[in-house]
Design goal:
468 residues, globular, binds S-adenosyl-L-homocysteine, binds iron/sulfur cluster, binds FE3-S4 cluster, Methylthiotransferase, EC 2.8.4.3
């Protein structure tokens, strides 16, 4: 489908431990991990008296949490900063102060350039230094000049962050793994997020229990390569994600577990077995493949073949027959020929995806593919992307249409678009709308799907009673 992975502004909230005296506005771009990080930055600033505000006007501090994954990332940041500068100037002219911070992956990759081109920015901080934010704010408040923290500190930020304080609601994110050592030819993440690291199982389980106590019914485990998670379990034995999922599934009240984003190379037998044996593990998996051509997969340094991917999908479907697949695709990576592109189309036809994200290759400074000689012309990339997205749209529509007539559990998360309606999500992440009472929000209820739309389903309640 055509939407790009997470680019919506996200809301942040924080529990205040003293009466809020200052207003914090956070703008979030990029992946779900940035959404999670924005919440954690609000948490770390709450003890200083910062409470969230939905608008930048009048804020004492604005954080722009940035993404560097594709296209003109830096230009987008500078244009947003230009807008925020006017607000900062207006506030200062009125005798106030606004601390302006740039966080996230552009800050990590281009911190020095940000300070050179936007000297009015007070703080530049990379994703691994959020726990130092209070100290940076103190330094910036003393007007000692701009503060930049983009090293990869020896200490682990999670050891220094307070417990996640802000309730996230019925569906929550939980970062369990961060960073990447895979160095795909096209990707900036290993440079912006640093080396692969897992949070200890005990810390993950404690945070999950807190989220459930605050009302979460569904938790999505996050990591740049979430299925590379590893750690010692309560029994002291080394464990991988499949085991962690089993431990999480024992938390009373947690009815749905998801994880994203996975790498095909880290799909081990234990995780596949968890899909067969843990009912709370939802039958939906986002497993990026990028290309269906072995030549391109090698050029991309993905270190698996197209058939290895087909094989994993076969195992997953054998383990959990109702599992639906989602993926990421890149068209026009340097050296991609028409035959390579056709191999990607064939892989899509062979597998059948319920959902997908697809992108034109975008050269990222400092990555190996950016300097490759055989770049694909823009017009060719456009043509391939359109053909690929047309096929994926067809598959998504077919998947949604096949849901009509099924009775499925829906976790209701809020009111629907129209009065008297409530909305939730299916096991396969489709939004579902029904006519029903607001008391069902927060529960999982069987719904019979009446009709499928492009991006959502509608149906009728099978019973007006929670089934879980
Ligand atoms: N860790 C995940 C992906 C993280 S980035 C994985 O290994 O698959 C999310 C998606 O952005 C990638 O899957 C890829 O499809 C896309 N992407 C990353 N860098 C890109 C680039 N330079 N140009 C176009 N798309 C890119
Ligand atoms: Fe980027 Fe590849 Fe790492 Fe995914 S596995 S984050 S695409 S380098
Ligand atoms: Fe973007 Fe950084 Fe996430 S580059 S996709 S915000 S890891």
């Amino acid at each position: 489908m055509t939407r790009s992975a997470g680019e919506q502004p996200a809301q942040t909230s924080a529990v205040t431990r003293q009466p809020p005296t200052r207003q914090l506005h956070v703008i979030t771009w990029g992946c779900q991990m940035n959404v999670y990080d924005s919440g954690r930055m609000a948490d770390v600033l709450a003890p200083l008296g910062y409470a969230p505000t939905p608008v930048p006007e009048g804020a004492d501090m604005v954080i722009l949490n940035t993404c560097h994954i594709r296209d003109r990332a830096a230009e987008k940041v500078f244009s947003e900063l230009g807008r925020l500068r006017l607000l900062k100037q207006a506030r200062e002219a009125a005798g106030g102060r606004m601390i302006l911070a740039v966080a996230g992956c552009v800050a990590q990759a281009e911190g020095a350039e940000i300070l050179a081109r936007a000297p009015y920015v007070d703080i530049v901080l990379g994703p691994q230094t959020y726990h130092r934010l209070p100290e940076m704010v103190a330094r910036a408040s003393r007007a000692a000049g701009a503060v930049i923290e983009t090293d990869f500190p020896a200490e682990d930020k999670f050891d220094h962050l307070p417990d996640a304080a802000a309730p996230q609601g019925l569906t929550a994110f939980l970062t369990i793994q961060e960073g990447c050592d895979k160095f795909c030819s096209f990707c900036v993440v290993p440079y912006t997020r640093g080396a692969e690291a897992s949070r200890p199982a005990a810390a993950v389980l404690a945070e999950a229990r807190r989220l459930v106590a605050q009302g979460a019914r569904e938790i999505t485990l996050l990591g740049q390569n979430v299925n590379a998670w590893h750690g010692a379990g309560p029994d002291g034995q080394p464990a991988t994600l499949g085991r962690l999922v089993r431990w999480l599934a024992e938390i009373p009240g947690l009815s749905r577990i998801r994880y994203t984003t996975s790498h095909p190379r880290d799909m081990d037998d234990e995780l596949i077995a968890a899909h067969a044996e843990v009912p709370a593990l939802m039958p939906f998996l986002h497993l990026p493949v990028q290309s269906g051509s072995d030549r391109m997969l090698a050029a991309m340094n993905r270190r698996h073949t197209a058939d290895a991917y087909r094989e994993i999908i076969g195992q997953l479907r054998a383990a959990r027959p109702d599992i639906a697949l989602s993926s990421d695709f890149i068209v026009g990576h340097p050296g991609e020929t028409e035959a390579d592109f056709e191999a990607t189309m064939q892989l899509i036809r062979d597998i059948g995806f319920a959902q997908a994200f697809s992108f034109k290759y975008s050269p990222r400074p400092g990555t190996p593919a950016a300097g490759a000689p055989n770049q694909v012309p823009e017009a060719e990339k456009d043509r391939r992307l359109q053909a690929l997205q047309a096929l994926l749209r067809e598959q998504q529509a077919a998947f949604n249409a096949a849901c009509a007539g099924l009775t499925i559990p829906v976790l209701f998360t809020g009111p629907g678009r129209h009065p008297g309606q409530i909305a939730g999500r299916s096991p396969w992440l489709q939004p579902v709308h029904v006519t029903g009472p607001a008391e069902l929000i927060g529960t999982e209820v069987q719904v019979t799907i009446a009709s499928a739309h492009t991006n959502s389903l509608s149906g009728t309640l099978n019973q007006e009673r929670a089934c879980a």
